[in-house]
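Protocol step 4 of 6: record predicted structures for both targets in the notebook before any analysis. Target 1:
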Amino acid sequence: MSRKFQVKVVQSKWIINDGHRLDCGPYLSGAIEARELLSNHRTERLDSLTRGYGGGIYNGPQFSRNYVDNPEFGVPFLTTSTIQQADISRLPYISKKDAYSTRLKFLEITEGMTLITCSGSIGKSVYSRKDMVGCWSNQDIMKVVADVTKILPGYLHAFIVGKYGVPLVVAGTYGAIIQHIEPRHLIEITVPRLDEVEQQAHDLVQRAADLRVEANTLIKLASNQYLSVANVQEITPKYWHENSGKKSFTAHISKTSLRAMNYIPLNIHLIERIKEQSDNCLPLINVVEENTLRSGPRFKRVDADREYGVELIGQGECFNTRPCGRWISKNHLPNDKLLFPPDGAIMIAAQGCAGETDLFGRAQFITGKLLDYVYSQHFLRVIGNESIMPRGALFAFMATEIAYRIRKGFQIGSMQQDFHPDMIKAIPIPIIDYNEAKKIDAMIRNAYYNFDLANDCEDQARTLVEHAIEEGGR
């Protein structure tokens, strides 16, 4: 966060050329300077390079969302927040009947689209991957569909997310409290034609998308491999919903908790299944380092510029492909490994709403670029004891559906949920052969290396396009 005031001299011809707008947004965004620089290139209007519904630049209508639990009767549904997540396997489902109706069919996502948030926090862009194909999007996501006979979609995305594309996208922003952009604000954006740079940028963006899909596949494979070695059978969300028995049941309770959620019959059965099927099983508290199975410390948050601060990540940003948080002063932070987690720590979203598609209970592995951040107190810190098990292997188990359901069953609270501090310690962890665990640890670390490499590829593509624009403008 920058605390510096922005000051700029606005020329009268800028005001005339921009429809006599007197709000400061279009002039401080950099859109005018971008147009000036792009005028030195051969350019084409964006709407001449797209095709499909609405000319290839469109969002959607507002509509009633009829959610379903069974994927057989629904399609995955993306929102402005979930399009940025690295793992989209826990999306809500909207009715398949509604999705395939004439009114909403065009909201289906295909590979290679540029998805842009167009309401609220506008201008955030994502390149659609293979694992997004067959998802539907809400009305606040604008799609830009490249005509591949005229322009490569990866290059078009690299331009739109760059420092000359973003100002042009957000220049048409309107609205006081909730801001918006519409397709009509994008159609006249001029796209520079950069010859061989376009192929290079496309290849980098496409590789980034493929790497993210491969990373998610590796994590799933690692989790399945862990359960296979441990001789534990995995479950599916559908199986849990159909067999949980959560609507009506009787249970033997203890003085630990009086909340019905903590005694869901299927969860109790899953705990017993792990203990029976695994040759060696330990409670979670015995698998982690001492004094680490808890939330982080509370601390004073003093805003600072990047050169003096560190980026604070909360639950809402932690699971995104590119976490983007708040910059705070390092000098006001305690030296605590729960705040600055070590390589291989597991962060579990531990406070908030516990709906089926909320972040509560989801786990993130902290390695690579994710070590550059400081994390809020709202995560449960799980820092494995590597003399017992490599941390990547522990994450592979915590990322399974069976472990996710068990820990979500230990929630307490009314509106805002948290984990029961005693129950969470007792989660059964099947201990597997250490050499097998090391192989699984390597799979997890390779997956997160791919996530980092994907970000590097996108950065290279964006930089390549920006440099080509700047060099051509001299």
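Target 2:
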Amino acid sequence: MKTLVIIPTLNEKTNIFHLYKKLKKLNIKFDMLFVDDNSDDGSQEIIKKLAKKNKNVKYIFRPKKMGIGSAHKDAFKWAYKKRYSVLVTMDADGTHDPKYIKLLIKKLKDHSMSISNRFMKPNLLKNWPPSRIFLTYLRHITIQIFLFVPYDTSGAFRCIDCKKVPLSHLIEAEDNGYSYFWESIFILHQKKHQIAQAAIPLPYRSVGNTHITFRDIFFAIYYLLIVFIRKILGKY
């Protein structure tokens, strides 16, 4: 089973090496693909050093900030071209613990994809500010109401069976930012893919700053309405 762990980065210098060490401790054979959007904090230098030391570390350096959704699409195109069997996507900010990768892979059995779910059990959003918890729950509930999707759609900790999910289904989502996550799950759900969920805790980011802005939040609301209208008109 040829497995690839995809890690988009943008100014994650303080987190990349720590994540790399955690990944190396896993008793799984896999490659790592870093997709960096022209970080200016030295992230690319660290990635290049890791690649020199370990042939299983790959990277794509993009010329500017192009969006996390776009980073996933480029990574998927690269991975399918290289004929990987299983893809794992995760954040570089320390909120996704690599120890749960085995669980996500295990849950792929009889499913096209497995994803983390922060709402299946209480207290999975550890140390989050009340305002962020409120917004996260609000987004989750709103997407369920508007799009009838029974999943935690906005998380990036995912595992994909490439033999069951065509590349075209993963890159069909139009958004290139954070809305890519819920839009892609909505599309996969519409195409009748079976998606497994795992209750995985998501601690609040402790190092570095979040890249989500208020503009991203307001655009997500606007874009959700656009997708909802398209769904009503039967365009999915």
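Step 5 preliminary note on target 2. The domain at 3-232 is CATH 3.90.550.10 (Spore Coat Polysaccharide Biosynthesis Protein SpsA; Chain A). The two ends are 32 Å apart (CA to CA).
Proceed to step 6 after PI sign-off.
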